[in-house]
Structure formats: C-alpha cells, structure tokens
Amino acid sequence: MRSVDVVIVGASLAAAAAAKRLVDAGLETVILEKQLLPRHKICSGILSPRGHRFLLENFGPLPRNVLHEPTSCRGVTFHFPSMVSMSMDFFGGTTPHLHRKHADHWVIEQSGAEVMDDTSFLAQRELDDHVVVTARKRGGEAFDLKARYLIGADGPVSPVLRSLYPDYHKQIPMFFVGQKFHEIIDCPLDEAYFHFWFHPDLGHYTWSHARDSRQIVGVGYKIGDKFHDRHLHVARYFEEKHGVRLKPADDDHEGCSENFGPSLINRYVFGKGRVLITGQATGFLNMIGEGMSCALHSGAIAGESVVDAMLRNRPVQDIYRQNIASEVRRTTDQWNPLKIAFARPHEADFPKALMEMPMGDRIKVMRDIWSFLKLYKEFRWGRQIMAISAQRLLHGDYSRKNWL
Ligand SMILES: Cc1cc2nc3c(=O)[nH]c(=O)nc-3n(C[C@H](O)[C@H](O)[C@H](O)COP(=O)(O)OP(=O)(O)OC[C@H]3O[C@@H](n4cnc5c(N)ncnc54)[C@H](O)[C@@H]3O)c2cc1C
User: What integer pLDDT is reported at residue 120 of this predicted model?
Assistant: First the structure.
C-alpha cells in the first residue's frame, strides 16, 4: 500500500489552499477528485474582495482564461417586493468574475500537489497513527492509500463527513439551488452587479446576473419542490416587474444540493481524530451564499494545522479548532444581527446604502427583509442566532461546544 503524508478529497478551492500549505512545508500530498479535470462547478463565480486577495497572495495574478464575461463585478444589488432596489459596491473596487472550471483547475495546479482525478473517495478508517483511505478510479478496482492525515474538502454533501457522521445530512435542512441560462432580448438589470431578491414568494434564494452574453435566472428552495415551475415563476416575475425579456431557457440548466444553515447557528463540523473537514463541507457559507473566500481561508487553516500538528507532535484536532476560530468569527459574524447593525461584517456597506435612501424606502426595505426572514421560520434558527449573538457580545467569541 502506498504511504503519503496527507490525502485531500476534492480538487476545488479549499483543497488547493490546504494543498498549498502542505506542499510548501514539504509534505507529500495527494488530492483525489471524483471528476475528470478541469471539471465543471456550478457557481456564480462572484469572488469577494477577501477571496480575491487570497488568490493573488497565494497563487499569483489570475490568467485571463479563468474569467467569465463580464470579467469583473462591482458589487451586489438587492431587490425587494416593494420594488425598491439598492446597489452596494464592494470595498476596494471590482472583483474578478471567476469561471470555476478553469479557476479551480488553475489553483489546484498552482498548489503543486499530486492529483488523481476521475477517482472517488469511498471510505476511510483510522488506525493508530494513520488513516487508510479507500478510493476508486472510474472503471477500475478500489485501492487503498495510507496517510498520516485525511482532509475532506469535498463540498456540501461531503462523503468524508458522511463517513464520520453517517446521519449528519439528515439532521440539517438541505436546499436545492438551480440555474437556467437565457439568450437576452432586453435586460435592464445592470450587468456590473450580482442581483439578489429578498422576496418570499420567489423562494429562499433568487438571483440573476449576466454571464458570457446570456442571463442566468437562479432559484433556491428547500429540497422537494419543482425546479422548472419555480424557475418559470421567477422568470415571469423578472419580466413583469423588471422588464427583463429573455428567450426560453437553453438546454444546459443545472442544479445541486446546498448545506445552507450551519454558519448561521455556529454548527460547524471540523472532523474527528486524524480526519479534518474543511471548506463548505464544514458549513462555511457567507451572506448571500458567498462561499469561495471562506473555502480558501478554511482550507489554508486546515493545511497549516496539519503542518503544526506534525512539527509539534500534538493532536491535530486541538490545533485546527484553535486556528479555525478566527474564520468562524468572520463567517458567523455575517449573520449576527448585532454585528450587522454595529460592526460592518460584510464586504459591501449595507447600513450606508440603507441610510442614503429616503426614509419611506428604508421602512419598506426593513419591512420586506422581515417578511423574507419569516420564510426561514420553520428551521427555528431565530432563537439560536439570538443566543449565539449574545454569547459573542458577552464573551467576545462563539462557543466551540456546538462544533462536531
Ligand atoms: C449556484 C451556486 C452559486 C454560487 N455562487 C457563488 C458566488 O458567486 N460566490 C461565491 O463565493 N460562492 C458561490 N457559491 C458557493 C461556492 O461555490 C462554494 O462555497 C465553494 O465552491 C466551496 O468550495 P469547496 O472547495 O469547499 O468545495 P466545492 O467547490 O464544492 O468542491 C468540492 C469538490 O469535491 C469533489 N468531490 C465530491 N465528492 C467526492 C468524492 N467522493 N471523491 C472525490 N472528490 C469528490 C467535487 O467533485 C468537487 O470538485 C455558489 C454555489 C452555488 C451552488
């Protein structure tokens, strides 16, 4: 059986950031990716300023082929049922509009790790001082790798997480997000912005933006509803209320499951023993579903924690949980009503944009946000958010007791 220092599952942003730290420290690192690279990834590709800085500092200037048209994004525009719209620019200027297929492949190559693509993680078992990872190349036989540590950077439905906690995904609400692509007849939505609707009748997550001369119409809702009906409803609303005239959707629509929720209530999963979970698999997701910056940062922290654990001969979970607390604060602060009101936890200035509006519009916006939040009432997050916000206020941090 081949023996390596670290196996990482998933060849995406969290994996690349973890691999960069491990390879830089001289550790033999193998990445397993179930798809053939470069692989498609469903994503709007709107990178936050913090994510952009991470890429520049760790992987260098971005090549042109990792960008969609328009190549950059100025910020976000929120739309409300009362027909008030508010645009907010990102702090520090525009950010790149990433083409995930090529951007992810580029960072994985830049990390310097060995990649086995078209190869799925199947199982793991931890023995005294190592983990045996079982994987299979498509059409081939299953094989084992012996690793000192395993990092699950395998996204929202994380098979590595499931190998540790088989029932976990049944315990959290899972959402479906899907997007369709339309040729544009006439679209008054400013293509320099990512557009998001706080509208309870449209669904839990409704968005639109321009990409490569087409318009994306995206919908998100609790698993169990009908994608095509939901999409049609939203496309009709866009036409009726915003004058967005689009041709019927092209055939290449797509969707996936999302684990939205854990970062709101500080219920992250960081792993067990020599198995670390990182990126969106842990539950990291920023406001309006921005997950790339926290995937990159948490991945880097996972990699650093393994390096530290080996150098200091200490349990990796202790180090990881200590180090990851800063990323937990950043992400969960984005959902903390006290932080939103008084501390500017986001990378665009919502309170400033709100205060620049006439008083009547401000009242409409606050009322519309309140009715939108009621859509989430069934998940019973409200009381938990208030409790952890109080904890953050009184103790300066979020408790680690909620983490798995
Ligand atoms: C529709 C949509 C739009 C989004 N828009 C934005 C946006 O505009 N901006 C933003 O910041 N974020 C956005 N996000 C979120 C963002 O895409 C994720 O948060 C981010 O990609 C998470 O990165 P990750 O590295 O943790 O995992 P992922 O990018 O999910 O990658 C996981 C990898 O693991 C691989 N894998 C899974 N199972 C196995 C297995 N058994 N064996 C081997 N490999 C496996 C997968 O193939 C994949 O390559 C969006 C998400 C969706 C769904």
Answer: 98
Residues 6+ apart with CB under 8 A from 61: none
Q: Report in angstroms the alpha-carbon separations of 161 from 19, 113, 273, 293.
A: 19, 22, 12, 21
The number of the ligand 1 atom at minimal distance from the alpha carbon of 194 is 8
Strands 29-32 and 114-116: parallel
The mean pLDDT of 324-335, rounded to a whole number, is 96
Q: What residue ranges line ligand 1, CB within 6 angstroms?
A: 9-15, 32-35, 39, 41-46, 120-121, 153-155, 159, 177, 179, 256, 258, 279-281, 289-292, 295
Tell me how far the alpha carbon of residue 215 lies from the centroid of ligand 1, in angstroms: 21
DSSP string, 337-397: HHHHHHT--SSB-HHHHHHTS-HHHHHHHHHHHHHHHGGGGGGT-HHHHHHHHHHHHHHSS
pTM to 2 decimal places: 0.97
Model confidence at 192: pLDDT above 90: yes
Domain ranges of the chain: 2-75+95-171+261-333, 175-256
d(CA 19, CA 28): 9
- The rounded Å distance from CA 157 to ligand 1 centre is 10
According to DSSP H, which parts of 216-348 are helical? 227-242, 292-312, 316-333, 337-342
Domain 2-75+95-171+261-333 has CATH 3.50.50.60: yes
| Residue range 175-256, CATH number | 3.30.9.10
| Separation of first and last alpha carbons in the chain | 31
Pocket test for ligand 1, best of 7, 8, 9, 12 (most atoms within 8 A of CB): 12
> What DSSP line would sit under 17-61, residue for residue?
HHHHHHHHTT--EEEE-SSPSS-------B--HHHHHHHHHHH-S
pLDDT at 384: 92
